[in-house]
Design goal:
It contains six helices and no strands. By secondary structure, the protein is an all-alpha fold. The protein is globular. 36% of the residues are buried.
C-alpha cells in the first residue's frame, strides 16, 4: 500500500510540474488532479475516507476529462497519470481499505471546500473546478450559474451515492468469496 500511495503522489507531482512549467499553476487544483493526492495519502495512511473521496473525484473528473477530449480539448500526456492512474489505484484502495460511511456527503462537502479554495486562489478566467461560471458551451442549457452549480453538485451527489452502494456490494461479494 505504501508503494502505491507514493505512486499516486508521484502521478500528481509529475502532472503538477507540467502545469507549473507551462505557467498554469492554478491547474494543479482541479479536483481530478487533487484526487491523486487524496488517493495517495489515503493509501499511505490506510485512510479509507481519503482514498474513497479521491476515487470519486477521479470518477467525476475522468468523465469530464473524456468529454473535454472528445469535444476538442487539449491532451496533455501526463494527465493520464492523474485521471487513469488515480482511478486504478483508488479502486484498489477501496478493495483493500473498504468504503467509509456517509461517503457521498463527505465527497460533496470536500468538493465544495475545494471550490471555495479555488474561488479564493485561482483566476476567475480559468474557472478551475467550474467554481466561477457555467462552463463554455453550456450557457444555452444553464442560464444562471447557481442553477449550473446545483446541477453539478446533484450529479456529484448521485454519482457518489451510487458508487457508495456499488463499493459496499463489491465488499460484501469479496467477503463472501
Amino acid at each position: 500500500m505504501r508503494a502505491l500511495g507514493i505512486l499516486a503522489l508521484l502521478f500528481y507531482a509529475i502532472h503538477a510540474a507540467v502545469h507549473v512549467h507551462r505557467g498554469q499553476p492554478y491547474n494543479i487544483l482541479w479536483a481530478c488532479h487533487v484526487a491523486a493526492l487524496l488517493v495517495g495519502f489515503g493509501l499511505l495512511l490506510r485512510n479509507a475516507t481519503l482514498n474513497a473521496i479521491g476515487l470519486l473525484w477521479s470518477c467525476f473528473g475522468l468523465s469530464l476529462w473524456l468529454l473535454d477530449l472528445a469535444t476538442g480539448g487539449e491532451f496533455i500526456p501526463t494527465s493520464t497519470l492523474t485521471h487513469l492512474g488515480t482511478f486504478v489505484l483508488g479502486i484498489h484502495g477501496v478493495r483493500v481499505l473498504g468504503t467509509p460511511r456517509r461517503l457521498a456527503l463527505k465527497t460533496v462537502a470536500a468538493f465544495v471546500a475545494l471550490c471555495v479554495l479555488c474561488r479564493l486562489v485561482t483566476p476567475p478566467a480559468m474557472n478551475v473546478n467550474l467554481a466561477f461560471r457555467v462552463a463554455d458551451g453550456w450557457a444555452q442549457y444553464f442560464p444562471s450559474y447557481p442553477l449550473y452549480a446545483a446541477m453539478l453538485l446533484a450529479v456529484l451527489t448521485a454519482m457518489a451515492a451510487i458508487a457508495q452502494w456499488l463499493f459496499a456490494r463489491l465488499a460484501r461479494r469479496e467477503a463472501a468469496a
